[in-house]
Design goal:
Elements (H helix, E strand, L loop, with lengths): L9 H28 L12 E3 L2 E3 L4 H19 L16 H22 L10 E2 L7 E2 L2 H24 L6 H4 L5 H7 L8
Antiparallel strand pairs: 1-2, 3-4
Helix pairs in contact: 1-3, 1-4, 1-6, 2-3, 2-4
Amino acid sequence: MRIAMQEPSDKSLVELRDVLLETYAVNDAMNQHLLAHIDPRAWRGELPTTTNHGRSEGHRTIAAIFAHLHNSRLVWLRNNAPHLRCPARLDARRCTIKQAASAHKKSAAQCLRMLTDALSTNSDRKVTKFSRGWLRPWPAGATMFAYMFSHEAHHRGQILMLAHQLGYRIPATTASGIWDWDKLWKVQGFVTRPR
């Protein structure tokens, strides 16, 4: 399906870029919100394993999901913005909630720098492709942002579900904090609200 679109003005393109960058910054605020409200007993909790034709199939812990999110960011940075310094990897078996929060803050800042360059119209930008590591690269741009944001949103849903299944449900009023975008925008210090 082809969508007929009107040519956007330079002003609207700049605003769209700024909104995408703000949204990615808020993305980490959502992760930080969850990290601040995860019951420590759920951090390494595991669901009973299931068997598939006699083989045990393990499940990721909440700690492993947060480590995966951070370590995926590092892959994106190494593949697409090698000029940016990568923070250290997280070890899913050993990291604490506090270490995960600190690591996420660092990798989010570097990913935001990468996206700022990728969404730039400068002819000398350094980030021109988006390689996820195993598939054919895409041109850097809005699709790169969408993939990165969707990946994290998917895993946030898993984290909420896993905490609930382990018996450490995050209260609805707390969990809804990841949807309070007006507040998250303020927490990030943006002078505008979502637009």
